[in-house]
């Protein structure tokens, strides 16, 4: 509809123009008295070309002639014309066309090194305004090579290095220019800014390196603490590989992840990860599963020295969860189990046991960085059905 409206507007404008044209003669139209003479001045309708073309009297013909015989001019003249053309485009902020003109000028292979340096410098400026910093820097470098000490090229090279965050190179460009013109304010300002940014970048790099080293030390201490406790980490993809060979000791060992943070990948999903506090205790993210109601609870930092009952009395204290409509989930009524992820067996956990004691038991492993436990209501119909057909071990 919008395009149709624009077309209608255009048609209306043309109708108005044609109506006006009927009553007002076109000012630059051919006159009826000497139209043949005037036609003869138009290159397309000339019966014969004049012997010597006067650019004032025949500007159109002179323009055509210059185009036809352009290759006859010396390369320097052609390159200069293309440079001037590029400059006009540049003034109009038509940088793409300016680049085309400057490039055409360079292809003329002029022997004038100063002219070629200007073409490179001007093309560098056009590239700079288009955001092509690498191309601009290459052109500035080429211009400087042709004309050492060319300040405009040096300034442009320094500016490109600044945009590319190559502050050390920017300082070198500035120093080179200041040796030529020590009082150039533009170069002085660029150098001061480059020096400041270089110092800031070096400071940030030192901080990042120190932070990385600190994190590496913390990761090393964390893994050492887990290894010292004999806690097994299981990668999530390995935990899903159960089959006829799952009972095999060798296959079981292969399924276990090597002791690395690859087995602690829960941080991406939950935002929590095991950490070592200043007292040397591990704090784990722990997941409680309630299969009867398809519900879960998540504790982001379960201290390894805390017992399960410490958390359960809080979770199922005075205020019971809304899904426990029968108020069955009270600590004295609960049974808790962990699953052997390799064999599929269940191990019952005493609620007074600490998390560390359970994690160190045979058959217990940490999958995806998060120990998980199943909680059932003791003796309930669902509990009996859930445990039927499963091999359940009672921890001493």
Q: Which overall shape is indicated by the principal axes computed on the Cα atoms?
A: elongated
The CATH class of the largest domain is Alpha Beta
The description of the largest β-sheet is: 7 strands, mixed
Uncertain regions: pLDDT < 50 for 5+ in a row? 1-11, 237-260
Assign the CATH architecture of the largest domain. Roll
Question: Helix and strand succession?
Answer: HHHHHHHHHHEHHHEEEHEEHEEHE
Instruction: Report the β-strand fraction as a percent range.
Output: 5-15%
**Relative helix content:** 40-55%
Number of helices: 16
Q: End-to-end distance, in Å?
A: 81 Å
Mean pLDDT: 82
Pfam families: TPR_19 (PF14559), Wheel (PF18972)
GO cellular component, one term: cytosol
InterPro entries: Csn1/TTC4_wheel, TPR-like_helical_dom_sf, TPR_rpt, WH2_dom
GO molecular function: actin binding; Hsp70 protein binding; Hsp90 protein binding
Helices and strands in order:
Elements: H1 2-23, H2 35-39, H3 59-68, H4 75-91, H5 95-106, H6 113-130, H7 133-146, H8 151-163, H9 167-180, H10 185-229, E1 233-234, H11 236-239, H12 249-255, H13 267-270, E2 275-276, E3 282-290, E4 295-303, H14 308-315, E5 334-339, E6 346-349, H15 355-359, E7 366-367, E8 372-377, H16 381-387, E9 392-394
Parallel strand pairs: 1-7, 3-8, 6-9
Antiparallel strand pairs: 2-3, 3-4, 5-6, 5-8
Helix pairs in contact: 4-5, 4-6, 5-6, 6-7, 6-8, 7-8, 8-9, 8-10, 9-10
Domain WH2: 218-236
Keywords: Repeat, TPR repeat
Region (Disordered): 192-219
